[in-house]
């Protein structure tokens, strides 16, 4: 005889606890892959807006991955494992997007295939879930959907500006092939994906290689060095108007830090794990904000990009070095000038330039956080590579030497061009100030 039971409330007969944990775990791994792909292509795209859009998408994915991971741990307590499980084939397809034929194609794939796939999965989850039983998940998943929509829009716009006519057809074909592969294993969603075996080949791609020289925005005056004080210590940083100008140029040229933070995320995340992913994504996003601070101030003052230098000598100094040296390079330069930024912020305030003051003040706060990241992760990177964690000063010293070598290799032609540009820019700044 069947035992009688009270009826089930239809609107709440959805995902159970362990079902939820398995699904969210799969989503966390997808977000991790998307963050890594976005970071990988930052130094491979030219335009500053493209770098900023990828950095922001990376940070959004990493932030949601952190929330998903913590929620999985809550639901599976005390189990804190996060094995890939049944998502291997699906992740293999998604991770293959790093092998895009170029930066514009990678952005196109993120904007048109990968981000929408996960956004739709989140939307399906929200519809199937229950805000009473699973309110903590819905509290971050709703905003994650909004972030995905914003990133899709920004990356689409960046792709259109970045892509050349010869890249357009290839990028479309490659993204279409990626979409078909993803559909073959089961689009990202609530159901477990299929296992299609280890073989995967998406036509039109090319094996990803970390750029040794970062792509640069051709609208600007592209040079290895961006100000005479890069190679001439007697050239003053400047006061008053020159401080305003030099600070903005410096912020813009944190593009080298954007590229470097992106590289160390992609290169070191497999060894250092989830917590490094979260910190590195924030580091990358912050550096992209600092770059954008300088870009906006220079544009507000009326400078044309062609008048403004855009350099890469610090990134170039690490050519053919391992990712630990790149991490050390970023960490060293974060701490080198951090004390000066508070002083410069106060000086800018006394000038009445509250915008530059505010930007410098937020920059200082970010870089205080980054200094902690550098100390923590440089030691950990040395440890997992089998080296003495306390040998980090030797790595930093090597980075100083690498920069000195790159500066010493500067040609007189390079120096003369940057010096002439800086003088012209200072002259233009005086004209703008007089006219204002």
Structural class determined from secondary elements: mainly alpha
Helix content range: 55-70%
Rg over CA atoms: 24 Å
> Biggest sheet, open or closed, and with what strands and sense?
2 strands, parallel
Instruction: Return the string of H and E elements.
Output: HHHHHHEHHHEHHHHHH
Shape: elongated
**Percent of residues in β-strands:** under 5%
Integer count of domains? 2
CATH class of the largest domain: Mainly Alpha
Keyword list:
mainly alpha, Heme Oxygenase, Chain A, 2 domains, 2 strands, elongated
Task: Provide structural commentary.
- There is one protein chain.
- The chain has a two-stranded parallel ribbon with strand order 1-2.
- The chain has helices spanning 17-40, 48-75, 88-95, 103-128, 135-162, 165-185, 241-252, 255-272, 274-300, 313-317, 323-336, 338-351, 354-384, 392-408, 412-435; strands spanning 221-222, 309-310.
- The protein has 2 domains: 10-185, Heme Oxygenase, Chain A, CATH 1.20.910; 221-435, Up-down Bundle (Heme Oxygenase, Chain A), CATH 1.20.910.
- Helix 1 (17-40) crosses helix 9 (274-300), helix 4 (103-128) packs parallel to helix 6 (165-185) and helix 11 packs antiparallel against helix 13 (354-384).
- It is mainly alpha-helical and 436 residues long.
- The longest helix has 31 residues, at 354-384.
């Amino acid at each position: 005889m069947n035992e009688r039971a009270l009826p089930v409330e239809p609107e709440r007969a959805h995902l159970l606890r362990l079902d939820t944990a398995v699904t969210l775990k799969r989503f966390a791994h997808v977000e991790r892959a998307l963050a890594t792909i976005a970071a990988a292509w930052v130094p491979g795209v030219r335009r500053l807006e493209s770098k900023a859009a990828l950095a922001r998408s990376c940070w959004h994915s990493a932030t949601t991955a952190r929330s998903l991971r913590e929620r999985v741990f809550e639901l599976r307590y005390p189990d804190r494992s996060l094995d890939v499980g049944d998502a291997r084939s699906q992740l293999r397809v998604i991770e293959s997007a790093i092998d895009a034929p170029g930066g514009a194609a990678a952005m196109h794939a993120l904007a048109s295939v990968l981000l929408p796939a996960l956004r739709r999965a989140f939307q399906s989850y929200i519809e199937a879930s229950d805000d009473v039983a699973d309110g903590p998940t819905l509290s971050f998943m709703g905003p994650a959907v909004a972030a995905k929509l914003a990133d899709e829009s920004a990356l689409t716009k960046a792709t259109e500006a970045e892509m050349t006519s010869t890249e357009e057809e290839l990028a479309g074909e490659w993204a279409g092939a990626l979409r078909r592969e993803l559909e073959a294993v089961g689009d990202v969603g609530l159901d477990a994906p299929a296992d299609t075996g280890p073989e995967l080949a998406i036509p039109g791609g090319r094996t990803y290689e970390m750029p040794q020289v970062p792509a640069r925005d051709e609208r600007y005056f592209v040079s290895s060095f961006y100000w005479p004080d890069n190679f001439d210590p007697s050239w003053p940083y400047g006061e008053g108007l020159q401080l305003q100008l030099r600070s903005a140029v410096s912020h813009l040229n944190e593009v080298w830090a954007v590229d470097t933070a992106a590289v160390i995320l992609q290169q070191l995340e497999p060894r250092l794990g989830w917590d490094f992913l979260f910190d590195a994504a924030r580091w990358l996003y912050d550096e992209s904000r600092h770059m954008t601070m300088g870009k906006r101030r220079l544009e507000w003052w009326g400078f044309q990009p062609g008048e403004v230098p855009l350099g890469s000598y610090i990134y170039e100094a690490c050519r053919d070095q391992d990712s630990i040296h790149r991490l050390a390079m970023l960490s060293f330069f974060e701490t080198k000038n951090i004390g000066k930024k508070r002083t410069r912020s106060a000086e800018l305030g006394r000038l009445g330039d509250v915008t530059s003051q505010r930007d410098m003040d937020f920059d200082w706060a970010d870089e205080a956080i980054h200094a902690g990241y550098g100390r923590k992760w440089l030691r950990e990177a040395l440890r997992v590579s089998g080296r003495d964690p306390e040998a980090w000063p030797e790595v930093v010293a090597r980075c100083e030497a690498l920069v000195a070598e790159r500066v010493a290799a500067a040609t007189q032609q390079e120096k003369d061009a940057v010096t002439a540009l800086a003088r012209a820019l200072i002259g233009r700044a005086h004209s703008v100030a007089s006219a204002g």
